[in-house]
Amino acid sequence: MMSEDSVHPLGRFLREGMIPHIWCEGCGNGIILNCFGRALGESEFDLNKIVVVSGIGCIGRLSGYTNTDSYHTTHGRPIAFATGAKLANPELKVVVISGDGDLFAIGGNHFIHAARRNIDIQVICANNFNYGMTGGQYGPTTPLEAWTTTTPYGNIEHPFNLVHLAAASGAVYVARWTTLHVRRLTESIKKALQKEGFSFIEVITPCPEIYGRRNKMGTGIDMMNWFKKASEVQHNYDPAKAGITPERIIVGEFVDIEKPTYGRLLREIIAKVQKGRG
Amino acid sequence: MTEKNKAILTGIHFMDGDTACAEGALAAGCRFFAGYPITPATEIAERMARRLPQVGGIYIQMEDELGSIAAVIGASYAGVKAMTATSGPGFSLMQENIGLAFMTEAPCVIVDIMRGGPSTGQPTMPSQQDVMQAKWGSHGDYEMISLAPSSVQEMFDLTIEAFNLAETYRTPVTVLADAIVGHMYERVKIPADEAIRIVNRKKPGVPPEKYAPFQPDNDLVPPMACFGEGYRFYATGLTHDESGKPRTSSAKAQQKLVQRLCDKIRKNAEKIVKIQEVMLEDAEVAVVAYGISSRAALSAVRKAREAGIKAGLLRLVTLWPFPDWHVSRIAKQTDAIIVPEMNYGQIVREVERAAKETPVIFLPKLGEEPHRPLEILDTIRRAK
Tens of pLDDT along B61-107? Predict the structure, then answer.
C-alpha cells in the first residue's frame, strides 16, 4: 500500500523528465492537464496512439508534459499540423491543446477551416483572456474595457464567443467549462475523445498573475470563486447567446451532432478510385 | 496515358514540368500533399489531387500556405513522405514553418515554381528570384538543400532526388524551378520501378525507453521514430537537447544544436552537390548557369565553340549548398565567368565570392523572356 501511495495517480500520463512545469501559482493550466490525464486514464485508449499537439503560449508547454507522442509547433499552427498527422495516419488520436491567442488570433483561420472540413481531431482551448507568456497583452477573447499592457486605456475590441464560432464553423461537438468544473470537464474530454469529427472544448482558466492582477480579480482562488458565482450549466444552450460576461458564464454542451469526417470521405474516394470507378 | 493506380508510370511521356514533378514525387514514395493554389505551381496540386487517391495517398487543399507546410510536417512526423508546391508569395508564407521543419528535422519537400516578384509581381511569368529566399527566407541559421531542374525530365528526376536527400538528412529540401520549366512540355522517360533509387529515413535501433529523438549518429542525423510507433517522444521548435527537452537559456545547447543542424548538411556538401560540366577542360570563358537559363547558356557555348572561342558551361544542378569548390576550380582556369540569371543579382554574388580574382560578368534578366543564346554569346565574345 505504501508504494502505491507514493506514486502520482497520473504518473503514467506525465513525462517525468519535463516536470516541474513552468506555470505560475494559481494558473489553471495544471487543472486542464490533470483533467486530460484523467480522461485518458478513464478511457480505453492505447497511449501509443495518442498524439498531443500544442502551439505557442503558456498552455503550449503542455504537450511536453504528456507521456505520449507530442509536438510543439510554431505559433498558431497546431491545428494545421494535427490535420496532416491525422490524415497521414488515421489510427492516431490527435488532440490539440492550446490557448486562445494561438488558436483564435494567429491560428484562427486554421481553426475555422479544420472545423468546416470536420477533420477528426479534438481541440481543447485554454481561454485565459490574454497573452500570458508575453506578459499580458490583449487578445481575441479579452473582454471589452479590460486592462492589459497593450490596452492601457481599456480594451475597445469585441471578444470572440468561441463556442459560437466553433458551432458556426461546423464542429460536431462543442462544450465550455471552467477549471472549476473538473469532473464535468473530464467527462467532456472523454466524450470528445470518443467522438469522430472535429470537437471543441473551451476551458475558462484563471491567469491571476498576469491578467487577474491588472483587472483586480484577486488570486487564483478568487478567480475560481468568480467562475463558481458566474457559471451556469445549460446544456444545448444557443451558442450564439453564450457570450461571456462578468456576471454570467454559460457552461455545458452546446453541440453534439454526427457528420462524416474529411478523412472518412477521402478514404471512401480512395477506395472507389482504386477499384477503378473514380 | 494509362494511370491504373500505378505509382510509377514507367514509359515515355510528353508532359509539362509541373506534372513531371508530381510524377517524380509519387515515384519517390510521396503519399501526402497539402497545398494552396498558386500560379504557376497549380498544376502540381491538380495532378496530385487526381493521382494520390489512385495510389492510396492523401491530398488536401489547405486554407493557406502557412497551413500547407504545417500539415506537411505533421504528415512527415506521422511517417508519410510529404510535399507541398507553391510559388514566390506562397513560399514567403511557408518560411515560418520551413524553420520548424529544420528545427524538428522533419523530412519534406517544398517545390517553388518561381515567378516574377516582389509581391504579386508577374504571376504567369518566369523568374529565378527566390534563390536567396530559399537560402535565407526563414529566421535563424540553417542550411537549405535546393535543386534547380532545367528540363521536364529533371523535374521528374530531381523531385525524386529531393525526397531522397530529405529522408537521408532529415531535413526540408526545395526544388527551385522557374515557370518555364514548370509549364513547358517535353519528352520524359520514367524508368522501371526497380531502376528508381528510393531512400527512406533511418529508424531507431533502440527500444523506446532508450530512444532520444535528437541523438545523432556519426553522420549527425538522428534516427527518426514517428507518431504511433510506441516511442512517445516530444519534438519542439524551441532549442532542445538530444532528449527533446527545451533548453531555452543554455548557450551551450543552442550552439550544439544549431551547429549540428548546419553541419549535417555542410559536412556532406560534396555528397549532396550535383553539377554538370560541359566543354570546360580547356575553357577560357565559363558560363555558370542553372534552370532555364542554363539551356540558353549551353546553346551559346556551343555557338562560341563553332566560332573557335574556348567557352564552357558549369551548370548548377544543386544551388544550395553552394558548390564553392567547383566554381573556384573553374575560376582558376578561366579568364572570365559569365552568370546569366532571371533576377537582378542573386547566385552571381555566390559566384563572385567563389571566383575570387577572376572577373564575373552578370547578365540579369527580368520579366517574361528568358535569356537568348545570342546575347550570352555576345557576352562571351566581349569577355574574350
Answer: 999 999 999 999 999 999 999 999 999 999 999 999 999 999 999 99
Q: Is B73 at the interface with chain A, CB within 8 A?
A: yes
Which of A83, A96, A113, A269 to mutate to probe the B interface, most B CBs <10 Å? A83
Q: Where are the domains of chain B?
A: 11-195, 273-383
Contact residues, chain A, for B29 at CB < 8 Å: none
Chain A positions in Cβ-Cβ contact with residue B73 (cut-off 8 Å): 73, 81, 84
The C-alpha of A145 sits at a distance from chain B's nearest C-alpha, in angstroms, of: 32
- Which cell numbers in the block locate residue B230? 510506441
Joined together, the cell numbers standing for residue A194 give 470518443
B273-383 CATH fold: Rossmann fold (3.40.50)
Q: Do B73 and A82 touch (CB under 8 A)?
A: no
Q: What is the mean pLDDT of residues B220-236?
A: 98
Burial bucket for residue A153 (CB in 10 Å: 0-12, 13-18, 19+) = exposed
Which residues from chain A sit within 8 angstroms of residue B228, using beta carbons? 48-49, 51, 69, 89, 91-92
- Cβ distance B234 to A70 less than 8 Å, yes or no, reads yes
- Assigned CATH topology for domain B11-195: Rossmann fold (3.40.50)
Q: How far apart are the first and last CA of chain B?
A: 49
Q: Is B11 on the interface with A (CB under 8 A)?
A: no
C-beta atoms of A87 and B60 within 8 A: yes
pTM of the model: 0.97
The class that CATH gives domain A2-274 is alpha beta
Residue with cell 570546360: B280
pLDDT at A24 over 60: yes
Give residue A5's pLDDT. Answer: 65
Average pLDDT over chain A, rounded to whole? Answer: 96
Give, in order, the Cα–Cα distances in Å from A207 to each of A210, A218, A252, B14: 6, 10, 22, 62
Measured distance CA(B50)–CA(B15) in Å, rounded: 15
